[in-house]
Design brief:
The protein has 557 residues and is an alpha+beta fold. The chain is built from 27 helices and eight strands. The longest helix has 30 residues. The protein is flat, with a radius of gyration of 30 Å.
Length: 557
């Protein structure tokens, strides 16, 4: 595992708007650590515990979850421990024959690690391997990441008895991991932050430990686990029930519980793929501009129908991805734009997809409609503290140079949503917000570098968007002074999501438009004459071919 990759691609949650990044921190981490090590223990001890930034994001319908962005000092330390002990961690993963979510380094674009199977591959592999079993036990661990007791990490690595006996021995891998996790959340030992790749790496240490005990106790088990989801297969219901009870007890020993609402034991035959995925996947959208409008209209109507029928499924999130794969002509944009705006209001989780579509078709976008959409989003979500919706909406506003009404801007600056406040300061710098930000000065204090304000305060100061009352504030925060000295930034206003990438052949086909067709005047008499000549030539060729066939296959006398 490469340390630079883990910090660069595995630190900030992927759900954040594009300006938030850790590239410069990753590239300069070795130098940051070198400078930090020059300070004595009395300085370092003041950074023993910090608090992570909490970002509220939508799941499906009204349900939400909270992402966590740890302070860089603890995240860097945790990443070092993981990378230095990657072989030992992998040896724990290898003990599981059930895990489909073992993290492996991801050399391509995207995150620092990827799971050994995608969720779709996991589902298919379960069916492939369970061909001779008719009972399925499906269950999951309730609120897995938020419920992990950090002290159970050393239990899983060293056994519970050893870990308890040597809980202060920091030469042990489990204790090191435990320490940096709970230090990054104000000393709290319940939960690991959702978002960073380090949490997947840690959760798999636990998951693979559960798998090993399950498979040892019941070697006849078939199926797999994907993060917190178990799909297991048996010859009888009695076997499925026995395994379920054992798993319940096992998880309880690690202070975790089964999600009983999502637990089922079924006997085949039964539907294992939701109807909406099959129907929407098979829905063909024409490439002909005239037919395309009707197809898009019908597709979105069908997607809305299924979103109501399957309220716990990400129907609209799936549907917007399919729509994004269809290239849109100017003549169909007005309808398409209105439909995707309505989809976004209905399911805000698709805002990153919407942003990508809007940037791709920037010249088509109606700023009037987009401005109204932005106001609607902010009116709905600012008061509710919905960080994801507010931050992405503000980023879209900046991208299209749309001004935010003062009343809405004031409510953003008065909130505790510091990620959104940072983007709002960016808009103010670009004269898209006119609100007075003097009340934010009180947030610029030394303690803020160790709590959920650290990113906002650091970036606001180094970019001179806010000026602290005490001019030496940053220099008093030794770690962040090092970051400033090395030109580390976590917010780049020039970054942007990538445009949609259409295949060259498809792009070429779709460029052929009726407005670009060239017509040539033809003399009707000459045209008919040439047509008859071509017909005569064709008839002669057919006659010659038939004659050759007859001669070739004629029997000898």
């Amino acid at each position: 595992m490469n340390l630079t990759d883990l910090i660069k691609k595995g630190y900030f949650p992927q759900e954040l708007p594009p300006p938030f990044n850790t590239d410069s921190f990753a590239d300069k981490y070795t130098k940051v650590k070198e400078e930090w090590n020059k300070f004595d223990k009395s300085i370092k001890s003041t950074y023993t515990e910090t608090k992570y930034i909490s970002i509220s994001i939508p799941k499906v319908g009204f349900s939400r979850r909270f992402l966590g962005i740890p302070n860089p000092i603890q995240f860097g330390a945790l990443s070092e421990v993981i990378c230095s002990n990657w072989d030992a961690i992998q040896s724990i993963y290898m003990q599981s024959k059930l895990s489909a979510s073992k993290p492996i380094p991801n050399g391509a674009k995207g995150r620092s690690v990827k799971t050994v199977m995608t969720f779709g591959q996991f589902r298919k592999q379960c069916l492939i391997d369970s061909f001779d079993k008719v009972y399925e036990l499906k269950t999951d661990i309730s609120k897995y990441y938020p419920s992990i007791y950090t002290h159970t990490i050393p239990w899983a690595i060293h056994t519970k008895a050893t870990a308890k006996e040597k809980r202060k021995d920091l030469s042990m891998l489990g204790n090191q991991l435990d320490q940096f996790v709970h230090q990054a959340q104000s000393g709290q030992t319940i939960g690991v932050p959702i978002g960073p790749d380090t949490s997947l790496i840690l959760s798999e240490i636990l998951g693979c430990t559960f798998d090993k005990q399950l498979k040892t106790k019941f070697p006849f088990i078939k199926g797999y686990r994907y993060v917190d989801d178990y799909y297991l297969y048996f010859s009888s219901q009695a076997d499925a029930e026995r395994v379920f009870k054992f798993l319940q007890t096992l998880l309880t020993d690690f202070t975790l519980i089964i999600n009983e609402e999502k637990t089922t034991i079924k006997k085949f035959p039964f539907e294992f793929q939701a109807e909406w995925t099959i129907t929407l996947n098979d829905f063909a959208i024409s490439e002909k501009p005239k037919s395309k409008a009707d197809d898009i209209f019908n597709f979105v109507s069908l997607a809305f129908k299924y979103a109501n029928c399957y309220p716990k499924d990400s129907v609209l999130k799936w549907a917007i991805k399919k729509l994004a794969g269809t290239q849109i002509e100017k003549e169909n944009w007005e309808l398409y734009e209105s439909l995707i705006f309505k989809m976004a209001l209905s399911e805000p989780a698709i805002l990153p997809n919407l942003t990508k579509i809007l940037i791709t078709y920037k010249s088509f976008v109606s700023k009037r409609k987009l401005s109204n959409l932005i106001k609607e989003f902010l009116t709905i979500h600012v008061a509710k503290g919905h960080s994801f919706e507010v931050s992405w909406t503000l980023w879209i506003a900046k991208t299209f140079s749309i001004k935010i009404p003062k009343k809405l801007a004031d409510s953003i600056f008065a909130s505790n949503d510091f990620a959104s406040i940072l983007i709002a300061l960016d808009l103010k710098e670009n004269k898209l917000i006119s609100s007075n930000t003097s009340l934010l000065i009180k947030e610029l204090e030394l303690a803020s570098f160790k709590d959920e304000r650290w990113l906002f305060v650091y970036e606001a100061i180094i970019k001179k968007w806010l000026r602290p009352t005490k001019t030496d504030l940053l220099s008093k925060s030794k770690y962040f002074m090092i970051l400033k000295k090395l030109n580390v930034s976590f917010y780049d206003s020039k970054r942007q999501v990538e445009k949609l990438n259409f295949s060259k052949e498809k792009e070429k086909r779709l460029k052929v438009d009726s407005t670009n067709t060239v017509f040539t005047k033809v003399d009707p008499i000459d045209f008919v004459k040439k047509l008859k000549e071509r017909q005569k030539t064709h008839e002669e060729k057919v006659t010659d071919t038939i004659t050759n066939i007859v001669v070739t296959y004629m029997p000898n006398d």
